[in-house]
Amino acid sequence: MPCLPTLHHLWVGLNKPLLMINEIKPVAVFHSPLKSKFGLPRQSGVADRLVGYVELVEQYNDPDMIRGIEDFEYLWLIWGFSANRHESVSPLVRPPRLGGNSKVGVFASRSPFRPNGLGLSVVRLQTVETGHGRVRLEVTGADLMDGTPIYDIKPYLPYTDSHPDAKAGFTDTREWQPLNVEIPPAVERLFEEEQLVALRQVLSQDPRPHYHDNPDRVYGFPYYDYDVRFRVCDDIVTVVEAIRRK
């Protein structure tokens, strides 16, 4: 008779699922120039020039943990919506792609307000750093804020993970049009070229909540050492100013 799979599991009753009794803990922390939820790209990859870093926590800070990872071009990150302070209780959400009005089921969306608060993102691996007593991966295209806990890192495998002809639900019928971005020269001079390119990508995705449509309202979010403030009128994002953060 085969052994029952009792290790690390607990049977909670007839016809009920097995529950893991060991709690998942972060294996890494994400470092980003975006310091708040507001301003984050709505999906990974849409701001593919945005640079971030995956730094392994002390328990896993061992180069052997990532041996061979440099042979992969993209990685999956499984992470936590750590900035969402309240528990998700609604079965329905309002995706921004639908204008913030139409509702779909939470499991038919990528809403951050989920029963278990887990996110899944694909990022492009740029460099692997193992010096100075730390293991750190430089990646681009992440939609994670600074300080986000990462629970797992897996290689992206094109032969099994990519399905370019797959149906994509409401995103097939609601095309997303990036906004035009206008940044004054005085603000452009505050950032390096790559930082400026990534900022334009972030702003073009319209960071505002989609129930906001006031052309006179000024919005802002922290980006590197500055608070970037902007307005949106029709299909144009205009940066008003960038103020150095204290």
What is the gist of this entry?
With 246 residues, the chain is mostly beta strands. Helix content is 10%, strand content 31%.
Mean pLDDT over the full residue set: 88
Q: Compute the gyration radius: what is it? A: 20 Å
Q: Bin the strand percentage.
A: 25-35%
Q: Number of DSSP strands?
A: 14
Order of helices and strands: EEEEEEEEEEHHEHHEEE
Helix fraction?
A: under 10%
* Distance separating the two termini: 66 Å
Strand order, biggest sheet? Answer: 3-4-9-8-5-10
- How large is the count of helical segments? 4
Low-confidence stretches: 1-14
> What is the global morphology?
globular
Largest sheet: 6 strands, antiparallel, barrel
- Summing up helix and strand content along with how strands pair, one would put the structural category as mainly beta
Notable traits:
246 residues; mainly beta; 14 strands; single chain; disordered N terminus
Describe the structure.
This protein is mostly beta strands and 246 residues long. 10% of the residues lie in helices and 31% in strands. The protein is built from 4 helices and 14 strands. It has helices spanning 158-161, 170-173, 185-188, 193-204; strands at 9-11, 18-20, 28-31, 51-56, 74-80, 92-93, 104-105, 118-129, 136-140, 149-155, 180-182, 219-223, 226-233, 236-244. It has a 6-stranded antiparallel beta barrel. The termini are far apart.
Topology, pairings included?
Elements: E1 9-11, E2 18-20, E3 28-31, E4 51-56, E5 74-80, E6 92-93, E7 104-105, E8 118-129, E9 136-140, E10 149-155, H1 158-161, H2 170-173, E11 180-182, H3 185-188, H4 193-204, E12 219-223, E13 226-233, E14 236-244
Parallel strand pairs: 11-14
Antiparallel strand pairs: 1-2, 3-4, 3-10, 4-9, 5-8, 5-10, 6-7, 8-9, 12-13, 13-14
